[in-house]
Amino acid sequence: MKKHYIFFLFILFSLGNITFAQEVKELNFKELKPYLNKNTDTVYVVNFWATWCKPCIEELPHFLQTAEELKQEKVKFLFVSLDFASHKTSRLIPFMKKHHVYEEVVLLNDPDGNSWIDLVNKDWSGGIPATIIYKKEDRAFHEGQLSYDELYTKIQSKL
Amino acid sequence: MKKLIITAFSLLLSLSVFSKGYSPGDKAIDFKLKNIDDKIVSLSNYDQAKGFIVIFTCNHCPYSVAYEDRIIALDKKYKTKGYPVIAISSNDAEAYPSDSFEKMKERSAEKGFTFPYLYDESQEIGKAYGATRTPHAFVLQKKGSELFVRYIGAIDDNTQNASAVKEKHIENAVNNLLEGKTVKVDFTKAIGCSIKWK
What we know:
heterodimer; A: alpha/beta; Glutaredoxin; 43% helix; B: alpha+beta; two-stranded antiparallel ribbon; 32% helix
């Protein structure tokens, strides 16, 4: 009986872990906005992407590698998925598992892009990938793919 | 030497024109592009048109797919009023095999597109217009033989759910033009799939 109990606990614990790793919050832009304006001494890297976006998928390894290399530094990554909310469990979460995305992922479910694209950055046309790198008021915006070197340099310059 | 400088200068100038694309009010160029029925389509072929709803789109992009039925509806509604839809794919088919000319033919047949679906293989038209993503719409008004850009941007304000749309941006723009008014909202932004340039 005791053995069963431990086994049950173990299952519960691992299930809990899996769910935790896969949790993806769905936010509208108003809810996302605080993530784009944090006032701490951490460098925030916010990447707008989607599982269907080929150039996004191509640059993703650069982000994951940089995150791994800078994990001792005050850098935080946030991946803002623009996948349709209806594809969250069928595409987004399986994709994150497959590609070992352990950084924070949120799904921006706010279909009127025109109401918030300019609030992310005036220079953004709406194409993805797009990336913001900021520390307090020191902000950089980039639309299009980033190479590993570009990304690393941009983050380093703010550390 | 002088000639070289002039050439270099004009090259620079044309490059800057290319990268900028159109703004509302600009004069738009006509084009000759291959349609999915293998015929060449040019806007000058449309004698009766008062203008055009030009939409840069493609097969592979979920945002484009989400709009396919709405684009068909737009064409049905406005073709008879003088504003037919002209769909163009400028995407690099090597990067996205599902955007090849053959696949464009297949998709058009599957969905029963009522409008031309043109292949901008050289990507010149997409660049000239300043299309950056799919779908990316341009409403053109015809004045004599000239074309003027009257609206650039999103089709409406809800990509994911057609029944939750509040602002039908293209319809509003075309309705304004049909009523002889200036277009109230002539520019919007939207999320879309970046057009892949060669």
